[in-house]
Amino acid sequence: MAKQTALAGQVMPVALRLAEELGLELIDVELVKENTGRFLRFFIDKAGGVSIDDCETYHRRIQPLMEKVDYDYMEVSSPGADRPLKRPADFERFSGEMVEVHLYRPVEGAKRFVGQLAGLVNGEVVILTEAGEKRFEQKKTALVKPLIEFEESDLEDEIEPPDGDAGL
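Structure (tokenized):
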């Protein structure tokens, strides 16, 4: 509970303000204990995606503002292409896109559903599947994320060896 209080009270307002100042969107903040220590992680994004320079700038600016937070390591990164959808703004942004919905407990014998995101309506994740519309209470979803699809041919892009290395 102290972890969540620190995030809500100390970290989030400062992290949000800095992200806005730098023209970034703060997607999430987490403070987690792992085998090697406590990690304070910031996930940032912007239209067109974030660069390493964006992450470095945010890290340099946020670090001195987190002196009172008990952590061992700080990380700043992009949430990635398959970022979890958590907030209403996330569902609005990805409306119309294909998503995966993972449930804590099976519904109709399945814990994973794929469909076109219709949105978050009255606390329910709504997707359109081949079998029709599906609705899941958001609190019963373990994960909702964009579906990343690729063809096997995408993996077959060969890298040509440098001249003279063909026989090695």
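The beta strands are 25-34, 37-45, 73-77, 98-107, 110-121, 124-129, 132-137, 141-146. The longest strand covers residues 110-121.
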